[in-house]
Amino acid sequence: MIPTLKNRIKSTYTASSLVLLAVYFLLSACQSNKPEEIAAITNREEIPSLIYDELEMELTDSGHVVQRLISPKVLRYDRVKEPYIDFPDGLHVIMYQANGEIDAQIKCRNAIHYENERLWELNIDVEAMNRKGEVLNTEQLFWDSKNKRIYSDKFVTITQEGNVYTGTGFESDEKMEKWHINNLQGDLEFEE
So what's the pLDDT on residue 135? Predict the structure, then answer.
């Protein structure tokens, strides 16, 4: 069957209408962005430069492992004024003696390492244990690796050989061998 002129005009109008309708939808979907919206999308400081999943790292000195870091996720931000490494899903640090025995360890559910200051901020369910078996629990702990000390101004609990010490504020060397609770609140004895 040969199309008539009327049918050809009708199909041309239909095809033209579909094309115009598609162009209209494409143009209405595109909006001009404001400069601050573009800057927010392209702000490189807010994007981590490195992302690690399931990190397990050993630090050595003269061939001996001195520290082991374990974390499910690590984000490094080195484009900011104060570079830092974020451990959003937790961190477990194990420190070893020269003979390979565990010297101390720290666990937490969130941590940030400020690289220039060599300062660690450990948050949420922080637990630190020394080689004597003394256990520190708190919600926030700072570890100054440059000056080799740990401290907190939050409520702390230290369990030591059947005794429990609580208080607000804490200070110690990084191996937690010489520690001090600032505002001691109690001493409880218990049997295991």
Answer: 93
**Which stretches of the chain score pLDDT less than 70?**
1-43, 186-192
| H or E element that contains 10 | helix 5-29
Cα separation, 146 vs 186, in Å, equals 32
Token readout for 33 is: 């962005």
H/E stretch holding 42 reads helix 35-42
123: its two tokens: 């948050």
Which tokens is 153 given? 């101004």
Rounded distance, CA 88 to CA 70, Å? 12
CA distance 141 to 136: 10
User: Structure tokens of 144?
Assistant: 């100054």
List, for residues 64-89, the tens digit of each pLDDT value. Answer: 888 999 999 999 999 999 999 999 99
Q: Residue 38: in which H helix or E strand, if any?
A: helix 35-42
Strand (E) positions, the chain? 50-61, 64-77, 84-87, 91-96, 102-108, 110-114, 119-130, 135-144, 149-160, 163-173, 179-189
Per-residue model confidence (pLDDT) at position 94: 92
